[in-house]
Amino acid sequence: MKFFAFPSIRIQIMTAVTLLSVTLVGSIVLVWAKTESKVYRQQKLNEAKLFSRVLSTTLFANHLAEQNWSQIRLNLDLLLRENEEFVYILVSDARMNNQIVAASPGEFQGQYIPDVVPVTVTNTALNLSKQSSSVETFVLRDIQFSGNLRAKRGERIMEVASDIQLIQGEKIGTLRFGISLKQVENAVANAVNQALAVGSVGLVFGLLLAYVLAKRLSKPIRRLQVSAAKIAAGDLQHRAEITNSDEIGALATSFNEMSVALQASFSKLQKTLESFERFVPNKFILAIAPQGIENIQVGVAVTRTMTILFCDIRGYTSMSEVMTPLEIFTFLNDYLACMGQAISKTGGFIDKYIGDAIMALFDDQATDGALKAAILMRQSLEQFNHERVKNNLPQIAVGIGIHRGEVVMGTVGFTCRIDSTVVGDAVNIASRIEGMTKHYGCGTLVTESVILSLFAPELFSLRLVDSSVKLKGKDEAIAIYELKDKVI
Questions:
Q1: CA atoms lying within 13 Å on the CB side of residue 321
Q2: Contact present, 372 and 379 (Cβ < 8 Å)
Q3: Mean of the pLDDT values across residues 290-316?
Q4: Residue 132: partners with Cβ closer than 8 Å, 6 or more residues away
Q5: CA–CA distance from 267 to each of 233, 236, 276, 291, 292 (Å)?
Q6: Own/partner pairs for 3-11, CB < 8 Å, 24+ apart?
Q7: What is the CATH number of the domain that holds 367?
Q8: What gap in Å lies between CA 89 and CA 111, rounded to an integer?
Q9: Given this model, what pLDDT does residue 9 score?
Q10: What is the number of other CB atoms lying within 10 angstroms of the CB of residue 314?
Q11: Distances (CA, A) of 273 to 82, 232, 267, 268, 282
C-alpha cells in the first residue's frame, strides 16, 4: 500500500478531490438522464397537442356543426381501439351548455361534468383561453373499453383539450382525451436505470477509494478528537499521541503545546476564582451573575428574601484604644476566623465585615441555620475566650441580632471599581436588633419573622422578651425573642 503513503496531507486532499470528481461525473450522468426524461415527456405532450388540434379542426368540426353525433361517436370508438395509450375521448357541445354529445367509452355521453377526472380539470378544459391545453392528473374511477381495462382508479394520465371551431373562428365545442402515462413512465424509468447503471460503476469505485483514504486520514484525527474530549472532561494532563510526520503530526504537536498552556492557564484561573470567592461569596455571585463572573456589571440587582445576622463585639472601642494597630489586626483576624467558620458550617455566608461587626446572610433553605450559627458562634467564642484567658488577655462578649425580610443584592460603583452590597430595610432592622441586646441584657435576639420561617422551631429554646418593640423610624411594633445558647 505504498501508493497511499503520501508525505503531505495536501497530496491526500488532492487525491480526495479527484475521487470527488469521479463521483461528480456520476451525478452529472444522473442529471442528464433526468433531463432526457423531461425532454421525452415534453415531446409526448407536443405530439398530443398537435393530434388534438388536427382532430378538432378537421375531423370533428363539420360533424359537430351539423350535429352529426353518430358519426363522431364511430370515429371516437375507432380512435380508442387503434390507440392503446388513449384512456377516454370526450366531445362536448358549447351550444348545449357543454353537454358531452359523443364519448368513448360511451358511458360518459349526456353528462356535463364527467366523473372521470377532478372537476377543476374539467373546468379548465371547458374554459380555455387558448386553442389547446394539457395537464397531468389522475382518473377517479376504473375505465374499461370493449371489456378491457384502460386505466385503474388513481392512475396518472395526461389530459389534452382543444377548442372545436368553425372556419370563422367561432367555438362550438371542446375535444378532450386522456392519455395514459404508463409508456412514458416506463421509458423514463429505463433511461434513468441505464444512467444509474453507468454511474453506479464509477460511484462504487470512487466510494471504495474514498473509504480507504478517509480511513487513513480520519484515524489520527479521531485520536485528536478523543484527546480533546478527555481534556474537555477535565483531564488537563492528557497528551495526544503523535504517530504522523505530516501536517496532522504537526497539529498533534501544537495540540499538546496548547494542552500545556491550557493547564497552566486553568490552574492560574482556578486559583484566581478561589481567591475571588474569598472576597465575594459564591452564593452572592450566583445571584448577581448567574452567567458567570466574567459577565458581571455595575448596577445588576436582584431581590431576595433572606435571613440577616449581625454580630458585634461589646466594648470594642475601649478595647482597641489600649492595643497597637498590629495587635488589633491580629486580634480581628483570629476573632473573625472563629466566627466565620460557625457561619459557613450552618449554610450562611458573610456579606461584609464592618470593623469588628459581621453581617451574614442565610437563604430560605438555611433559615434554621441562622439560629444554629448563632449558637455555634457562642460556643466558638467560649473556646476563643478560653485561649485568651490562658494568655492573660481579657475575655470578650458579643451581641447577635437576627431578622428576616426582603433585601436587594447587587453591585455598586463604576467601571473601574465594583463592589457587592446588600441593602434594604431588613438589613437596618437586623442591625438595630443586635444593638438592643445591650438594652435587654441578652446574648442573641431574634425577630418574630425569623421564628415564623423556621422549619423545625421545636429544636430551639426561645423566650419572648418583648411582644411590642417599636424601632426608631418604624411605625409598626415587632416582637423579639431571646435565643438560648443550645439546640434542644
A1: 4
A2: no
A3: 80
A4: 49, 52, 53, 160, 161, 162, 163
A5: 15, 10, 14, 21, 18
A6: 4/212, 4/213, 4/216, 6/246, 7/245, 7/246, 8/246, 8/247, 9/217, 9/246, 9/247, 9/248, 10/247
A7: 3.30.70.1230
A8: 13
A9: 52
A10: 14
A11: 92, 19, 10, 9, 10
Could you identify the residue written with the cell 415531446?
43
Indicate the pairing of strand 357-362 with strand 171-180.
unpaired
Answer whether residue 332 is part of any domain.
yes
Asked if residue 309 has pLDDT above 70, the reply is yes
Model pLDDT for residues 202-215, shown as the tens digit of each residue: 666 666 666 666 66
d(CA 150, CA 116): 12
Secondary structure in 3-state letters for 134-187: EEEEECCCCEEECCEEEECCCCEEEEEEEEEECCCCCEEEEEEEEEECHHHHHH
What type of residue is 346? Answer: T
- Residue scoring higher pLDDT (274 or 124): 124
Residue 197 lies in a domain: no
One-letter identity of residue 300: V
Question: What's the CA dihedral at 296, 300, 301, 307 to 10 degrees?
Answer: 20
Give the residue numbers spanning the domain of 369: 282-487
Q: pTM value?
A: 0.49
In terms of phi and psi (left: phi > 0; alpha: psi -120 to 50; beta: otherwise), the region of 361 is: beta
**Distance from C-alpha of 246 to C-alpha of 262, rounded to nearest angstrom:** 24
Q: What share of the chain is helix, strand, coil (3-state, %, to 5)?
A: 55, 25, 20
Q: At 251, list the grid cell.
A: 497539529
HSE-CB at 429 with a 13 A cutoff on CA atoms is 27
Identify the three-state secondary structure at position 280: coil
Cell of 87: 384512456
Strands 156-165, 132-138: pairing kind: antiparallel
What pLDDT is attached to residue 401? 95
Residue type, 267: S
Rounded Cα–Cα distance for residues 47 and 83 (Å): 13
Give the rounded percent of residues in the chain with a pLDDT score beyond 70.
Answer: 72
| Element housing 486 (H / E) | strand 478-487
Task: Count other Cβ atoms within 10 Å, centred on residue 152.
Answer: 11
- Confidence band for 359, pLDDT divided at 50, 70 and 90: very high
Q: Does residue 289 belong to any structural domain of this protein?
A: yes
Domains held by the chain: number = 1
Is residue 40, in this structure, part of any structural domain at all? no
Tell me the C-alpha distance between 261 and 321, whole Å: 52
> Of 279, 277, 281, 276, which is closest to residue 409 (Cα–Cα)?
281
Q: What is the pLDDT of residue 463?
A: 92
Which of 277, 298, 278 shows the shortest CA–CA distance to 286? 277
- Report the C-alpha gap between 421 and 410 in whole angstroms: 6
